[in-house]
Amino acid sequence: MKIISAEFVKSAFKREHWTTDSLPEIAFLGRSNVGKSSLINSLLQRKGLARTSNTPGRTQSINFFLINESFYFADLPGYGYAKVSKQTRADWGVMAEEYLANRNELTLSIQLIDARHNPTALDLQLNEWLNFYRKNHIIVATKADKLSSNKLKKSLFEIEKMLPESKILAYSSTTGKGKEQIWTEIGNALNNFHRNS
Fold first, then answer.
1. Do residues 41 and 48 touch, judged by C-beta distance below 8 A?
2. By residue range, what is the domain housing residue 71?
3. For the stretch 100-135, what's the b/e string if a residue is b when 16 or more beta carbons lie within 10 angstroms of its beta carbon?
4. What is the predicted pLDDT for the residue at 163?
5. How far apart are CA 162 and CA 148, in angstroms?
6. What's the DSSP call for residue 139?
7. Whole-number percent of the chain with pLDDT over 70
8. CATH number for the domain that contains residue 15
9. Quick check: is 53 in a domain?
10. How many domains does one find in the chain?
11. Residue 179: inside a domain, yes or no?
12. Rg (Cα) of the chain, in Å, rounded?
């Protein structure tokens, strides 16, 4: 897909702040520090659009980015970072679940998992949510360049075993590996949204 424009629109801390123009949305979900901002920036070929931070857990809102004035990327709060309070962690869960359950504009959820590690209990829980709410989704195994091709194969095999209902794509924001496949999934989801709306 050719990216003509990409801009940060707003941060939503509660439901009333969500966008209201009924454009389709692609959501990015994953643990803190899994590389969500890097993935978004690399897909959009914009260096600092989604802010990367050395402090995992900094994104505590849903951040909306308008792409080509025709659809949104929604960057959801990272989860599973121990240094935030239990209350904050609970709020994140509520915000993410409310969004996943109730957002009609959501046409594809992209769940990120670090390719170097097995999915955590929270990764599995999020995946259960996506399947429970019958949300169209894919898993992106990030940081794929950090593994040899043999280790990556093994890792993807393990992730597939643990998340058998999901399509899994390996990705590296350093090399761009997997970018085309992700854009294909996004394009299909946008086409489906327009067909069904």
1. yes
2. 6-196
3. beebebbbbbbbbbbbeeebeeebeebbebbeeeeb
4. 94
5. 21
6. E
7. 88
8. 3.40.50.300
9. yes
10. 1
11. yes
12. 16
Burial class from Cβ neighbours inside 10 Å (0-12, 13-18, 19+) for residue 164 reads exposed
Asked if the structure places residue 1 within a domain, the reply is no
Contact criterion met (CB below 8 Å) for 99 and 49: no
Which whole-number Å values give the CA distances from 104 to 133, 138, 140, in the listed order? 12, 18, 23
Q: Which two tokens stand for residue 146?
A: 């950090």
Give the orientation angle of helix 179-196 with respect to helix 36-44, to 10 degrees. 80
pLDDT value at residue 89: 58
How far does the chain reach from its first CA to its final CA, in angstroms? 21
Task: Please say whether the beta carbons of 168 and 153 come within 8 A.
Answer: no
What are the residue ranges in the chain where pLDDT is below 70? 52-60, 79-93
| 36 domain-assigned | yes
Q: What's the pLDDT at 129?
A: 84
Residue 114 phi/psi, 5° resolution?
-70, 120
Cα dihedral 75, 79, 81, 86 sign: positive
